[in-house]
Amino acid sequence: MTLEKTRRLVQGAIGWGSLLLILLLLPAAWTPAAAEEWEVTAKSFVIMDAASGKIIFAHNPQAMLPPASTLKVMTAMLVMERLKMDDRVPVSAYAASAQPSKLGIKPGETYNVKDLLYALMLGSANDGARALAERVSGSEEAFARHLTQSVRQWGAYRTTLANANGLPADYQFTTAQDLAILFRRAIENPELLRIMQAKYYTCQGDKEVRNHNRFLFTTPLAVAGKTGFTRSSQHTFVGLFKKDNTALVISLMGSQQKWADLRVLIHKGFEMSGTPIAKMEPLEERLWFAKKAGSRPGGKGKIKRGKAKVIMGSAAPLSLKKKNTKSR
Predict the structure, then answer these.
(1) Is the N end or the C end of the chain the one with fewer CB atoms within 10 Å?
(2) What is the pTM assigned to this prediction?
């Protein structure tokens, strides 16, 4: 029964004051599974069946929010349409001047597309994103226009982009639903999927990048994903998780505690899909990555688990915060 029909039925039997009270109480009672009940801080999220594209559950899926570095999934998709992996990419002063996270490329250097894509998707290299954008379209501004046109052709109708890396910009936004749709398309590209699955990669000049997707280090359920963070966007994420024959694409935007929120969504997603999993322990917050100086042969750093500070390269520690508190 609709809310309007209910109003009409009870209007004749009770006074307006009582009716107002009932109507105020009904939405809470009729909400099937509010995000608050799941203790999720994200402003929006989508849990999507990867095989069919059907949305299993969502919260504010069409809210337009800044994507942060999840935008780099879109950048990689367009780059791989336009360039070959062994194509050479010159580095301009503009590309090299990008704010961190960055690979540390310098003006006048030349890299191949493959190295910059790994730096883009694992280490979230903003300078690599600019260099690739300039190689594809001549400028980052032109690339953003081409990328906006492309993502809308791919089904992301509420996405507008202003750069190639997700750094804060005026009039740049996407939605959790668009992110899920685009990521589902991205994983159909075996080469791009292989890049996002890598934990480490060593680029030209012995520059090592490590995947920011901590789930790859903590659970076999994780297949691939991309993280993002700016102060304006808060934490964002889109990724693929799989158990047996069930595969889920999960996107999340505006989160204050990304890893904790995602553990809830992963657990609920598999439960709602009929493939329940055991409770996920908070391993992501406990990971500690050794610096390269103490790394194993081949450049892969040690991974320790414990209740120590959360350290990833030179990034500042992330800490779990209670709901409705402000992130740093």
Answers:
(1) N
(2) 0.80
